[in-house]
Amino acid sequence: MRILVVNVNTTESMTEAIAASARAVASPGTEIVGLTPRFGADSCEGNFESYLAALAVMDVVTSYPEPYDAVIQAGYGEHGREGLQELLDVPVVDITEAAASTAMYLGHKYSVVTTLDRTVPLIEDRLKLAGLDARCASVRASGLGVLELESSPERAVEAIVAQSREAVERDHAEVICLGCGGMAELEEAVSAATGVPIVDGVRAAVAIAEGLVRLGLSTSKVRTYAPPRPKQVTGWPFSAARV
Amino acid sequence: MRILVVNVNTTESMTEAIAASARAVASPGTEIVGLTPRFGADSCEGNFESYLAALAVMDVVTSYPEPYDAVIQAGYGEHGREGLQELLDVPVVDITEAAASTAMYLGHKYSVVTTLDRTVPLIEDRLKLAGLDARCASVRASGLGVLELESSPERAVEAIVAQSREAVERDHAEVICLGCGGMAELEEAVSAATGVPIVDGVRAAVAIAEGLVRLGLSTSKVRTYAPPRPKQVTGWPFSAARV
Amino acid sequence: MRILVVNVNTTESMTEAIAASARAVASPGTEIVGLTPRFGADSCEGNFESYLAALAVMDVVTSYPEPYDAVIQAGYGEHGREGLQELLDVPVVDITEAAASTAMYLGHKYSVVTTLDRTVPLIEDRLKLAGLDARCASVRASGLGVLELESSPERAVEAIVAQSREAVERDHAEVICLGCGGMAELEEAVSAATGVPIVDGVRAAVAIAEGLVRLGLSTSKVRTYAPPRPKQVTGWPFSAARV
Amino acid sequence: MRILVVNVNTTESMTEAIAASARAVASPGTEIVGLTPRFGADSCEGNFESYLAALAVMDVVTSYPEPYDAVIQAGYGEHGREGLQELLDVPVVDITEAAASTAMYLGHKYSVVTTLDRTVPLIEDRLKLAGLDARCASVRASGLGVLELESSPERAVEAIVAQSREAVERDHAEVICLGCGGMAELEEAVSAATGVPIVDGVRAAVAIAEGLVRLGLSTSKVRTYAPPRPKQVTGWPFSAARV
Amino acid sequence: MRILVVNVNTTESMTEAIAASARAVASPGTEIVGLTPRFGADSCEGNFESYLAALAVMDVVTSYPEPYDAVIQAGYGEHGREGLQELLDVPVVDITEAAASTAMYLGHKYSVVTTLDRTVPLIEDRLKLAGLDARCASVRASGLGVLELESSPERAVEAIVAQSREAVERDHAEVICLGCGGMAELEEAVSAATGVPIVDGVRAAVAIAEGLVRLGLSTSKVRTYAPPRPKQVTGWPFSAARV
Amino acid sequence: MRILVVNVNTTESMTEAIAASARAVASPGTEIVGLTPRFGADSCEGNFESYLAALAVMDVVTSYPEPYDAVIQAGYGEHGREGLQELLDVPVVDITEAAASTAMYLGHKYSVVTTLDRTVPLIEDRLKLAGLDARCASVRASGLGVLELESSPERAVEAIVAQSREAVERDHAEVICLGCGGMAELEEAVSAATGVPIVDGVRAAVAIAEGLVRLGLSTSKVRTYAPPRPKQVTGWPFSAARV
């Protein structure tokens, strides 16, 4: 089975890190293909960038030339998953939701530890819409930007560990979700420091996507995610258009 | 004061109708400027089209060359409002929210009557995120597409009236919101048939936008809607880029 | 257009301050009439006083001899709005709701900063019933009584600013609502100290009331706010009765 | 122990019926005193009348000359309970809440069957504020006014039974609350017709009030229901004042 | 009337203490019978022990040889009440719910102060299912195990008082529920230290059970709590079976 | 990897059917072991039977002599999962939750179609506690008992299809969960009749359990699901005890 794992920003090294992390947990026989958007921001840390990413993900996925079995949208708290579901017949898994639904099998409450404070409301909103917020103890920010995770790995560990401890001790989280596509490396350190299970969204999404494919299940097409009606669309796909 | 009223689809005649409707209720001294996206679908009836519209609205607004005091996003249940709020310093008013918050001053519960069944979940999700759903009795679909409202005005009236009656009688709505940017014309007929106040989102948004401007209030910039951080963005604005 | 702005307590100087504040934002052509209840408490800081105020407001409004276009109930967290809506044909706007619905256009979450701690639950209850609580980060008390706002303006600024800062920093509010009819004067100081938009309920209510009148909308009469059925009522209106 | 059972309307015969119903379940040694407001409507079927009743109940209770141990506010869905709690040291029990909290010991979901459709939102709002709505399957209206219950007992039985059956069969209620102070007589007939437990609010309130007194518990005075602060109140108590 | 008060653990001395506490508030003519499970843990502080207790309570109640009028399940936050309701015709009152529904008559918000931190989620879950959580300010743990309450009464008072004060001051609780079957002794000390009403679940349950019996009300049998269908059950009742 | 799939009733043929269904979707290398409780009811259709099953499942799992990697509790809407989580170090997956969390990846809303009407509230309660109810459109009963599914397969298909259609058409479900451990056989027929994805809880649970094991994740032990404290437990395990 082939799973497309789509980064939401244009930073290639992050795509590679995400794909490597996905491969580390994929079943034998699962091919992980990392995709990088052709346009958008080099990191997504707000709504404008996230809306750009939403379309950039749809653009890069719909122009992917080979067959595939599932798509993982590898951005935490980002827009766009519903659009992909309309355009595709294969299952689509968002890592924000994958982390949350996985964490809910592991503890009574979970927290998300993410990058900048400004992305907290985006994540909260995605969880609310997904109906996965009832057991969310908190979404906490480490104060580090997305790209700082890569450039300052030691500071990243320290900041994520500090917030994870607060989540466990003050917010009564029993599980921590790493709230960014590029945090899988931190799993071990945060787990050691807090003593609770750590869920990386990309890895959780691989397991869920594989499961859906194995069960022969995909997006329902009767209502919300029915294919777009035939109509005149200008400027799409972006990669091939100049408005 | 100048208010940009931005259609979410590429159908010029609908932009004109929306702008005319806005002008009908604007205060003396308020200039209404109708804008049509440069790309996207000729009607928005689902998530993919709505995500396209989100960016197309940001694109056309940010490239508008004159000063303005407020922006109205004239699509019902559409994505994108949060992105606009990050990019702009002036107030942004979404008609889905404008209709709902206005209706809540007029009755204990309100219903929305919209176009196709498939757009119902989009509207429900927008109201939930906006925190304006607690007094929403129902979102009902007339079964008519967006463009059929214009092409078959008589069928439109009939279908909207029928669903509005159901909303009042079965769902106990006391106010009806017309759930599409292009429905203002129906106000009188639906009001006559149901005996309840009818709220058109575009008109409600004009009143709210004027009020915000008059009060000197605009989007808070401390967290969720802070301006995007300086970073490398590829392919934006779309109107000027080829990916 | 004429808007009645009704104080909920019997302190004339507060009525005047409220009316002046309303006039400062009213459109040209809008006449603001301040009304003071003929009975009740000189400040409303609890349920008993608020229930008295509810009737006192209905009493003074229904005996107002001239025509008017809208009514603003200028008490924060007070009872009575639903009764006025039954008795009147014109729109009724409560300042608690006006502040909240306005704040929701400006930020992801808002807080209310009010007077005494004992009034916090009243405000929370009003927001819950109004269905405007989902995005309320907190309702905080400054510890100052209603009349102290007038008598100790400096302490008032200090206390309100302190709580507003806490609301922004700890509760993640992005907008502050001034939770008392007589706080409009503080707008500038609190805004300067916190850097977030400040919403005064009276001023917000003026904008909303004007908007409703301009849109030709008023209270739905089909169910909850239908006029009282004809029946024997003893002792009403109070101003004319001795029980 | 002496319990004041206060009618919310001015119809003496209803006060007598309510008091008789209360006496039928009171423990030996409990004296039930029925009180009728000195002003207000002869039946409460809306917000204006309910706000009048709120004060009329406070008026008649606070001028009652003898000692008493608890107060029951015998109106369904009415305003005012919180005011009474501020003014009194003894426990206050509202029959809307008493019926609901009792029904919740008897079945998974309960419904309320009341008088006119226009009172449904009042009851829903009271249950929501009381935090007793989560297991409420529905509030249904029989279409009969309060006074018709007395004047047309046969029609009343028929209409209440019909709605109770609907509540059980369609809304999955397992318990029915009789949603009016004057419905206790119907208990047997509705029970026989539906096969589910029927809760009369007045009777439930007697049991709860007796229990609170026996346990030595009364209203907390630390915050919401602290006694009113000393201040200047004009026109109160109404019975002794002319504004 | 005879009420069975069933301890959830096998510690006889706790059964006696619970029964004595119940007798202290029972009406004249009410006989309190304390029952101790024949199997299970000597204290319930988690889900496994609570599930054991659930069956042990059903076992000891259904094999009780004399008639009785009501059953009180005297464990805080424990499983099993719904099973008892299916098996019995008399009312069943759980002390977690009894404390909460009683507290809701006394203040705007209540808190529960319990034993170990690990039991907090059990209590929260029970309150959520019971639909009694909306006005719960917090569930706080004293850090003492169930049996330490008896063995270290002084430490118990200190720890419970400390958490109760926090609940009142930080969480804005106006009433404290003692969150364990064996805490009734602490009522006076906690009340003196906090100035708010203290509700003991066992005592509250006695009042509620007596009230239900006096009103002639018992569990609805139409759906959720209908008697088990006739079928083959192996190993039940446990007291008489070897699997 | 070895996964224990535990039936909740004592009917061996149902255990076999469940295990076969699990095997049909298990990955190569996954061994499915079906376990049947040693005591309890031959079908679980209510709370008493479900509480028995809760312990019977813990009994049969904890006395299983070989190592295993995960446990699936194969009863829909049953009690007990939290107890298993305390007793075990491996992940525990409940099929009610597995079906729901899987369905949420496939459509905007899902419905559950189950056996008898009396089990509907149990399922609703389990979903509420699991925090997976926000996107549940309805839980519907086919009216057939658990064992009738096996004995009358044609009637079962007909009844389940009928309710599934209602769920899609009236409740706007986009996905159907088969609400009983023994319904996997119906998947194809219901899918064909409704055109929406059908989720069988057992199969979904296999995919989720495999995923958790592959990700190296298991139950958090810091709070709610910490192992039981050492204490005196009488009569456990049941299989080895006579009380």
Automatic annotation (TrEMBL), chains A, B, C, D, E, F:
Pfam families: Asp_Glu_race (PF01177). Transmembrane segments: none annotated. It comes from the Bacteria. InterPro entries: Asp/Glu/hydantoin_racemase, Hydantoin_racemase-like, Iso_Racemase_Enz_sf. Belongs to the HyuE racemase family. This is Aspartate/glutamate racemase family protein. The lineage of its organism: Bacteria, Bacillati, Actinomycetota, Actinomycetes, Micrococcales.
